[in-house]
Amino acid sequence: MNGGRLYLIISAIFFAVLLVFIAGCTGTAPAVPGPGSTGTTLSSATGSLSEHAVFVEPTDGRAVVIKTIAGAQQNITLTIYLLDDPEVVDALAAARLRGVSVRVLYNNASYAAANQTNPNFYAVANLTPLGVEMKPASPVFALTHQKTLTVDRSRAIVMTFNLDPAFFSTTRDFGIVTTNQSEIREIAEVFEADWNYQAVTPSEPTLVWAPVNARTKILGLINNATKTIEVYNDEITDPQCIAALGAAAKRGVEVRVLAADMQGPGGTNINAPALATLNANGAKAKSITSPYIHAKVAVADYGTPHQVAYVGSEYMAPVSLDQSRELAVLVFEQPILDRIESVFSQDWLVPAIPEPSVVPAGTTVAVASTV
Fold first, then answer.
1. For the whole model, what pTM was predicted?
2. Which of 147, 148, 235, 350 could, after both became Cys, cross-link 288 (CB 3.0–4.6 A)?
3. Residue 328 pairs with which residues in a beta bridge?
4. Domain co-membership, 59 together with 127
5. Averaged pLDDT of the chain
């Protein structure tokens, strides 16, 4: 090998190493497109992957929630349907005692409408004397069913579960931790508007708000799917959602649905009509005995460049999508989708609860309350 050729090889190697170093410093990487319905893009760089993380109930317990509260230095805001877990209440109390501002916006309208004692009064009684600001959510919403904890405007947890002991021990649920500043900024803006009983129109592409855009975004996720849809939902009674899932199955999308065995009047599963309709249209849909399906999650096109997961508080019913305050987040990161897919596949192996063989068309069942 002559000296000139050796020089060229050494120069090429040096240049290649230099490029790798520069790329590592800038953190740039090819963009991964989000779903067409949101028009967003996310980077596949390691830095972007750290913007979201997932945890699973009942496997992971309270640890993420308690640690997040314990790490607060300035302020905590919480919008919640149900807060009566003693350990979480104690953590909020400890935060306030160390000087953190704590505000809690809790559901009241549905309990008042049903003439029920509000279970959030446990938290009110224990936290208000310590200086925690507790406020019933606006009655303009049939339910304030959102479940979101935000700390120092730097971290938020979007949950499918309530802060009640049962949700850390018996139900299938998920939480998404976000450090995405655009998402956190809008979550904070909506909290302030709701706290002051003011109207607000959020628009962050990756956030799914009811009653603003939840129906459009959830139907968009279903209608845009080309390969697979996997759904966890505790109540599926919305005709448009049921029709969209059935239409997806008919066009060749593999649709699998796990719904809660939610007992209505007479002891029948209120999800039975939806399960029967979906199965008749080529989907695979069932309820299982354990764990109880409380999650509100949908994964579309797992394993493809267009994969996306919806995780949040909206359930597939008109009252949730059109009349209540709800929040979910769209996530695209591979580790998150991998874990959701793994848990779903495990739960899918649980035998189905037998449903009535004949469900009258158009059957509807009134439900006193849902969480």
1. 0.85
2. 350
3. 208, 312
4. yes
5. 87
